[in-house]
Amino acid sequence: MYLILLQYIRPVAAVEHYLEAHNAFLEKQYREGRFILSGRRKPRTGAIILCKAGSRREVETILAEDPFDKFQLAVYDIIEFEPNTYELADVSS
C-alpha cells in the first residue's frame, strides 16, 4: 500500500487549468482498482492519495499518467507502508 503526498509546485490557477484532465486520471485509477481514496490538502497546497500497487515502480508508472506530472505542476512523495490495523468507517465527514 502506498500513501502519495502530492505537492503543487505551480500556482493554483495553473493547477486548475488541468483539473478536469487530472480528475479523469483519478477516475481511471479508481475504475482500475488502484486508488482507494484521494482528497485535497488543507490548506490547498496539494493532495493525498491512497494507492494499492505491487511496487513503487508501479506507483511511479501510474503517476506518470497524471497531467499534474506531465505538465510539471506537482511533485510526489511516495510512502510505502503495510497496513495492519484499520477500521471500516465513513470518511466523508
UniProtKB/TrEMBL annotation:
Transmembrane segments: none
Domain of life: Bacteria
UniProt-listed SUPFAM superfamilies: Dimeric alpha+beta barrel (SSF54909)
Residue stretches making up the YCII-related domain: 1-81
Pfam families documented for this protein: YCII
Family stated for the protein in its record: Belongs to the YciI family.
Name recorded for this polypeptide: GTP cyclohydrolase
